[in-house]
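Quick start: load a record and inspect it. Here is Ada DNA repair metal-binding domain-containing protein:
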Amino acid sequence: MKKLIKYLMLLTVLTILFVKTADAQAVYITKTGSKYHDETCQYLSHSKYPIALIDAKERGYEPCKVCKPTTTVTRKEIEIEKSKIIEPPRIEKNVVSKQCSVRAKTTGNRCRRMTKNVSGKCWQHE
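Running the structure step on this input writes:
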């Protein structure tokens, strides 16, 4: 009877450890960042895209220094539900700055500030 209890306890511990390693394989990236994060990281407040750890490393993402997510891959095949993984939008890395598109109401002159924002407006006119 004691052997059975020990065996069941060992099986339970191993199951918990296996589930934790399977969950640790899912990391998160942001829309514009170059690092991958843990699910509870403070930098994921605005955008959060789940991705497999292997894919994150293949794409050149580095681990976050704040949340310190797992960096080792324990299994070659990761089973993450396809509905959970969302492909992040592609953003051009080499964006050229351009002049703000807003014109003054009284003079009609354009704003002199330069911006890399997609909207074409500088920080003051957003």
